[in-house]
Amino acid sequence: MEGKMSKRIVLLIGVLGLAGMLLWVGPGHTAETIKMGYIGNFSWPVAADAFYAAKLAVDEINKAGGIQGRQVELLNEDSRGQTPMATAAYKKLVMTKGAMMVMIAEGSEINFACQEAGADLYPEFKHIAMNTCTSHEELGDKVVKNYKRYKFYFRPFLKTTSYFQFLKENIEAMNYLTKAKTMALIIEDALWTEYFRKGLLGKYPPFKEIVEGTGVKVVYYAETATGEKMFLPILDAIAAKKPDYIYNLNAYSDAVIFAKQWATSGAADIDYYNNGGASTMPGYWGMTGGAALGVVCTTYTTKAAVTERTIPFIEGVKARYNKDLNWVSYSSYDAPYLIKTAADLAKSTDIEAIIKSLEAVEMVGVSGKAKFDETHTYIYGYPYQTAVRAQFQKDGINVVVFPYDVAKATNPDKTFVPIKKLRKGL
Amino acid sequence: MVDTIQIILVYTFVLGSLYLLISLGFSIVCGVLRVFHLGYGVTFIVAVYAMWMLMKEFHFGLVSAMIGMFIIQTLFTLGIIYFPVVKRYIEQEELLLTSLILISLIVEESANFFYPVTAGVNIPTTILPGAMKIGKASIPIQMLIASAVAVVTTAAFVLFLLKSRRGLVIRAVSQDIESAQLMGANVGRVYALAMVLSAIPPTICMLVIAPIWSIEPSLGLPLMMTAILVAILGGLGNIRGSMMASYIVGFLSSSVAFLFNPRMMGLATLITVFIVLIFRPEGIAKSESLW
Amino acid sequence: MRIEHKRARLVFHIKDLKLEWTIEPRYWRNPLIGVAGLALLPLVIMSKPDYLTLLTTANIYAAVAIPLAWQMAGIGRMNFGPQFFVGIGGFTAALLSIHWGWGPWQTLGIVILLGLGFGLILSPLTTIAKGLYFSLITLILPLIFLEFTYVYTDIFKGETGLSGIAHLVHFGKIRTNYIVSCYLSMGLMLIFLYVVDKILRSRIGLYAAAINDDEDVAETCGLNINGWKVLCFTITSVMIAVTGWFAAHYYGTFAGVTYLQLPFMVKILLIVMIGGRGELYGAIVGAYFVAFLEQALTILGPIHYIVFPLVLLALLFTLPEGLYGIYRRHKYREYYPTMRVRKR
Questions:
Q1: Using a CB-CB distance cutoff of 8 angstroms, which residues of chain A are in contact with residue B223?
Q2: How does the average pLDDT of chain C come out, rounded?
Q3: Architecture, CATH, for domain A34-159+307-370
Q4: CB < 8 Å to C153, chain A
Q5: Is residue C337 over pLDDT 70?
């Protein structure tokens, strides 16, 4: 006998099911605990791993007595990488769970959506949003243009213009390490690189000009599509020009394939700096099957003491949760501590007071001194925020090469080795 | 100018052979079973991750891992795709397509769960490292080996289809099922054999290009889209058509990349297939069966 | 009390009384009860804003699946790219709102016009392309659109998407905004349902059934199949474009990568299949089910990514006609197109 149901009954079952879900009430909102939220796409290893950095921070804060005497509770929501679910999670955390701070470990699209949702919610539900993951300039510009509406939005991370500084440091380092006179520049053609390819009106010229301003000649320049998998033609053209090093600025492109193809192409003996993407992930050596030998890139897992808190942080995440670290981890670890420091400065947990306090606070973070500028973004540049650059050498060992004093402190007996020598097995 | 033409020709051969290997299995499924296999990407994922699992968790050596992986692939194709799904729903195409898509999703998410991108999955099947210069183009030797393997595999398949008795039966079933049955062909067995055969080219493909390709759980979808585009252009389910179409697509991709803008490669291919679908939907091949 | 089930009727025997209730959507009281139930739902869950968003998302999915159900029957082919029109509606609304500051009710007119335009331009495909090839063309169209958004990144903003789109309603309190938006989404879905239901029950529905069954026979009966196909395709395309418009204004952001790629198509396909293979009311059931299931399974943690398609697969195996098929076994007429790779 088949099941016989009418549309009405099916609807009834749906409503009952919904009621059942409603009855499942989460942990009660006690006046004593402070709630912090974390929104990320847990099928993306970066967001999933960075959550544990936030967890470590919250655990440490709680052990030290909490924030102004109140314990902190960390809630997480899976956005599945979809904007509708991310905004729903954001609203849930702020409205239903009463979170006073929400970390958003997502790309620009979701951050824009959450920023708008947060701005709508702010008048009635005061909270703070922390963007730990994406550097889109406009997210910070909106805070300046409409302070009243977006003042709750903070970014303990880089923005595009501070990125210019970061890039220039990379170029100068490579110039020095490889004693370069010429170089090849590749930039991926994506929205976030628009300012680097075309320049930022009134502030910075195109990146190519900045590079040439440091004293090297750009003998080859190309823009690649983000979905590109075949870089051999470009590598061939580069090999023909014989630059001293290659600089590849990318985030969405396939850095793994590039390294694999670079290692077997005619340009294999040209030093290579990969700025972004998969090279920052700890598995890069394994993913490229060792083809990353000689690649210089930012590293987030090497135990380099950028500040006195960096190494305990790296060891803490590994020991407690056995998770890898990436760029989002550093911001996610700083975020709860920023709230604590600001609350201690303001001697209160009132949101308006904390916001004012955050704008003034100067804290020792894990990637440098933490201070916000007028766009509520981290200030970049030693002794403020910086990043560790390292080179993959034999057996995948990361040798720190920049900043120079961090390099000397971390691996005093090792230094940058040109790729030609590395390939010969030195 | 001559240099550019020479580079384009070299890349046409290399890319075309690669596309041929990718789409061969899809054509076989389309031509024999008359099924639009929207879960085709799953074969690539199973090939890579089964091999990685055998090597990492069970510490197999390279050769034994490959043998084990072929066995797993066959078991998977027959045990999960063919018998429970294809055989059951072969008359109800929407259910079949949806089930195949779902299976492909389940396998992809499982791969992402156990071995996400950060796990550093790497298949060390480099036969000869380094690159070779052909005129002005420098091609990794592994890629040339991949192209050669593609040609050899296709030749082997064509020979099998043309010369062997089984191949004859397969061709008969693909041309006209009823007549083949009248002649005594066991259609069920032919279907099963075709499905297993269709899993072989993707597996070989992944084995050979793993050192120079990106290995991530979502690699199935772009490869399947390539296979679909080549198959549509060549005429669904026709190997001769696929052979021609793959080199045409290879030529299209490389000429657009070198003469205009590499970014337009995908768009050019899509628009070409779109136009072909409107004006000559049967594709290049004149035949409706496998060969 | 004894409940007896006779063909499409429930008979309640209470002592000596015999009450009958017809369980068919055609019986006017049933849809009314259904709509009343749906209308009360947002009020029940209004304290949980994430459920409101979930309900709105489910309504948006349903609003795509409902015209699709009519379209698939009316043109006799499976459309694998409804998200193309979602993209058209969404991007139009987004661009007009961001660059010219138009509000949602002003962009609606342009969205309808553009949906109509593109629908008309693409409608010859329904007559030229046969069966499978139409499905393949519709499969490719959204991908071409996506490539265009990447090529013209300045306008469409590639991976980031457009943001800052005007919201649907502006009341003082935030909760009011959310509930009103939810009701608007429900209204949209119910309007679509009403329109398509009425159409399917009229002559046009009969023509659609005839075209779906056998086009040649329909033509011999004197039916202008090309005209009806074009009409069906154009109107359903406009409806789907309006859904895109709604999504853009509701979320405030619109990105090609979210709506134009295959995963979104797979979701719509799953909704259609789970709901009952192109059945009208099944579309709503399927949309709600898939949306709620996706959200509910997140409790399981990262493993829910595997469990979600697994559950759907199990459901398809046990209920090959989808959830609505449980009901539809009463019916003896089935109108839905099939896709054949066979050349015949």
A1: none
A2: 82
A3: 3-Layer(aba) Sandwich (3.40)
A4: 189-191, 194
A5: no
